[in-house]
């Protein structure tokens, strides 16, 4: 099994592909009407994304199901070659809805400077972890 390659950014360990693109991510220009969903992985992000879209489109299920989630709510630190990223977030019309798993001290400064709305999901770490025991 291959180990996950990590690199340090501001005393936080990040996946190597995220750390290598750090200058692009950290310089992301938020807009005042952006909404950022910020959470630790496996803590209900997808569920909250769906709720936010239903509110945004006033319950119109046709509009909410128009495209895969990663197309309408980019994941800021995801490499462009995999799914979605900062580059794709820049192409979305306002109001943008974005998501991140970055820790609060790594969220691009423009979100704070522009006073964007942030939904922070906090969950008991015991509920967010999955322990698998292999019998082989």
Question: What is this structure's SSE topology?
Answer:
Layout: E1 6-9, E2 12-15, H1 16-20, H2 22-26, E3 35-39, H3 45-56, H4 61-64, H5 69-72, H6 86-91, E4 97-100, H7 109-113, E5 117-121, H8 125-128
Family: Belongs to the sulfotransferase 1 family.
Keywords: Transferase
EC number: 2.8.2.-
Explain what this protein looks like in three dimensions:
With 136 residues, the protein is an alpha/beta fold. The protein has a single domain (28-123), classed as 3-Layer(aba) Sandwich (Rossmann fold). 33% of the residues lie in helices and 16% in strands. It is built from 8 helices and 5 strands, in the order ββααβααααβαβα. The protein has helices at 16-20, 22-26, 45-56, 61-64, 69-72, 86-91, 109-113, 125-128, and strands at residues 6-9, 12-15, 35-39, 97-100, 117-121. A 3-stranded parallel sheet has the order 4-3-5, covered by helices on one side. A two-stranded antiparallel sheet has the order 1-2. A hairpin with a 2-residue loop joins strand 1 (6-9) and strand 2. The longest helix has 12 residues, at 45-56. The relative contact order is 0.24. Residues 131-136 have low confidence and may be disordered.
Report the helical percentage: 25-40%
Instruction: Please give the largest β-sheet.
Output: 3 strands, parallel
Largest beta sheet: strand ordering: 4-3-5
**By helix and strand content, what is the structural category?**
alpha/beta
The oligomerization state is single chain
The figure for the number of domains is 1
Q: Which topology does CATH recognise?
A: Rossmann fold
Q: Strand fraction band?
A: 15-25%
Can you identify the CATH superfamily? P-loop containing nucleotide triphosphate hydrolases
- The count of DSSP E runs of length 2 or more, i.e. the number of strands, is 5
At CATH level 2, the architecture is 3-Layer(aba) Sandwich
The CATH class is Alpha Beta
Q: Please state the overall shape, judged from the principal axes of the Cα atoms.
A: globular
Low-confidence stretches: 131-136
Rounded average pLDDT: 85
Distance between the termini: 14 Å
How large is the count of helical segments? 8
Order of helices and strands: EEHHEHHHHEHEH
Radius of gyration: 16 Å
């Amino acid at each position: 099994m291959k180990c996950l390659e990590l690199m340090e950014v501001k005393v936080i360990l990040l996946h190597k592909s995220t750390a290598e693109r750090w200058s692009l991510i950290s310089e992301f220009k938020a807009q005042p009407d952006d909404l950022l969903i910020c959470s630790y992985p496996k803590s209900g992000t997808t569920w909250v994304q769906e709720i936010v879209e239903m509110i945004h489109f006033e319950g119109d299920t046709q509009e909410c199901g128009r495209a895969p989630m990663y197309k309408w709510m980019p994941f800021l630190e995801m490499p462009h070659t995999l799914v979605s990223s900062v580059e794709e977030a820049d192409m979305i019309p306002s109001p943008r809805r974005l998501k991140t798993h970055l820790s609060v001290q790594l969220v691009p400064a423009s979100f704070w400077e522009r006073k964007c709305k942030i939904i922070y999901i906090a969950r008991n770490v015991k509920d967010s972890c999955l322990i698998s025991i292999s019998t082989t």
